[in-house]
Design a protein that fits this description.
Blueprint (H helix, E strand, L loop, with lengths): L5 E5 L9 H8 L4 E7 L1 H4 L3 H19 L6 E4 L2 H12 L3 E5 L4 H16 L3 E5 L21 H8 L26 H4 L8 H5 L7 H12 L6 H4 L12 H5 L5 H13 L5 H20 L22 H7 L6 H13 L4 H14 L4 H11 L5 H12 L14 H8 L4 H6 L9 H9 L19 H13 L10
Parallel strand pairs: 1-2, 1-4, 2-3, 4-5
Helix pairs in contact: 6-13, 12-13, 13-18, 15-16, 15-21, 16-18, 17-18
């Protein structure tokens, strides 16, 4: 008799290699039914992330076809759809990779208990991190609140070697019905921006590994110094692929370790950046309020503004501060933003414009194709001063000084701001094609004057910081 199939529920793990849940199912020799469910969590994604997820699903579906398999697509409540699939296929087991965000963790707990109550097996496996948050603790048994000791605690830990992808998957005697990906319209809110951003995406497992190999072939050497200069192609750009699980963090870790043993100067710093992502999930697990509240409660009295007209100009890349605007426009043209740019635009919004970090966090969630809930929240709180390992509030990035230091020849600013050049580049002009039509911007739109004098903005922020305990909730 044919053994009952195993349902493999894919989420942020759209690859075939080094995937513990898939390896465990494959070892049983039983038929495997790969499934992706467009549930409430998918619907809640921002426009760019949801569109980019659709690209990943499409490529992953093609990969499965080459493995004598296919990806079954269903839309609705995850528990309901899994129960339907169990009835349709006779499956008795469901596997998935663990999540580390509170909302999805609770969803998974409810589904696991619900399936077990119905007599089915539900098993979760290591997910999209190197070190599961509860496995890293201080000598006192608590969690880490500061990055550097966290790094020291995991730097020498053994990380399992990546497991190769199966050569083929056992198919069920009959496949259940599947939705059509196009019917989900995951890219519906991207509109004309999709055509602009698409060439910059490296979608799928093969593209992710190619990106890693390119980085190892050169940029990893001078990475520590060169990564701060946005005009250079000096970073791995793997954040996009890690977001959708198109590459295993263990594969990236071991590649970085091999480069370190080979004497590449930037390899250790690259590994530290990978562990910074781990630290974000460590804190997300232990202090879940980091996703939506000030990590440091004393910042609750700080008089940040809510959304405002200045923040809208920031969103549009029309602040009159070229380095800030170039970074924002890079996001609209490419789907991502250089890390130096992220720090500058976040500091400018939260300090010079005195705007709540959650305004920026929500906009990044809407626009970034590499959006990651834990890293996005920790990054914004770091820049604002309210989070763990935060940049001290009095350390306010001066966008002009940053430009003079990290964009000396203005290459980055000219690359993305058409108004600064007599003959703007195609990328600079593409910004006007990518942004919403309701903004009514075109290449003939004059570049704006500065929203605020940088020195005045700094002094205003410092005064608010000094008076934050007694300051009213609304300053303006």
């Amino acid at each position: 008799m044919t053994q009952p199939p195993i349902i493999i529920w894919f989420r942020r793990d759209l690859r075939l290699s080094d995937l513990p849940m898939l390896a465990a199912a494959h070892e049983t020799g039983r038929p495997i039914i790969p499934v992706f469910i467009c549930d409430e969590e998918v619907a809640a994604l921002g426009a760019a992330a949801r569109w980019r997820l659709g690209l990943s699903i499409e490529i992953f579906s093609q990969s499965l076809l080459s493995m004598n398999s296919r990806l079954i697509l269903r839309k609705g409540n995850s528990f309901d759809e899994i129960k339907k699939l169990i009835v349709e296929t006779g499956a008795e087991s469901v596997h998935w990779s663990r999540s580390y965000v509170p909302a999805t963790q609770e969803r998974d707990r409810l589904i696991k208990s619900g399936l077990k109550a119905l007599g089915h097996s539900a098993t979760s496996y290591e997910g999209h991190v190197l070190f599961e948050p509860w496995t890293v603790s201080t000598k006192e048994g608590g969690f880490y609140r500061v990055y550097t000791p966290f790094w020291r605690s995991v730097a020498q830990r053994a990380v399992p070697e990546p497991v190769p992808a199966p050569k083929a998957l056992c198919a069920p005697a009959q496949w259940p019905q599947s939705d059509r990906l196009d019917d989900w319209a995951l890219g519906g809110e991207m509109c004309c921006g999709a055509a602009v951003v698409r060439p910059y995406q490296a979608v799928g497992e093969a593209a992710a590994i190619g990106r890693l190999n390119r980085f190892l072939g050169g940029p990893i050497g001078p990475y520590k110094e060169a990564r701060d200069f946005p005009e250079f192609d000096a970073t791995s750009r793997l954040s996009e692929n890690l977001t959708y699980g198109e590459v295993s963090p263990r594969m990236v870790w071991h590649a970085g370790q091999a480069a370190l043993r080979s004497g590449f100067a930037g390899a250790e710093h690259f590994l530290k950046e990978l562990v910074w992502r781990e630290f974000a999930y460590h804190l997300c697990h232990h202090t879940p309020h980091i996703l939506h509240r000030n990590w440091r409660a004393e910042w609750d009295a700080f008089p940040w503004r809510g959304d405002n007209e200045d923040a809208e100009k920031w969103r549009r890349g029309m602040t009159g501060e070229p380095f800030v605007d170039a970074a924002m426009r890079e996001m609209y043209v490419t789907g991502t933003m250089h890390n130096r740019g992220r720090m500058i635009v976040a500091s400018y919004l939260t300090k010079h414009l005195m705007t709540d970090w959650r305004v920026g966090l929500a906009w990044f969630a809407q626009c970034l194709t590499d959006w990651d809930p834990a890293a996005n929240a920790m990054g914004w709180q770091w820049a604002a001063g309210s989070g763990p390992d935060a940049s001290p509030y009095f350390r306010i990035f001066n966008p002009q000084g940053q430009a003079e230091r990290f964009d000396q020849n203005k290459a980055y600013r000219h690359r993305f701001i058409a108004e600064l050049s007599a003959r703007p580049s195609a990328e600079a002009a593409a910004y006007f094609d990518a942004v919403p039509k309701k903004w009514q911007l075109d290449i003939a739109t004059p570049y704006p004057d500065r929203l605020i004098d940088l020195a005045q903005g700094r002094e205003r922020a410092l005064a608010a910081y000094a008076n934050r305990v007694t300051a009213p909730k609304v300053l303006f």
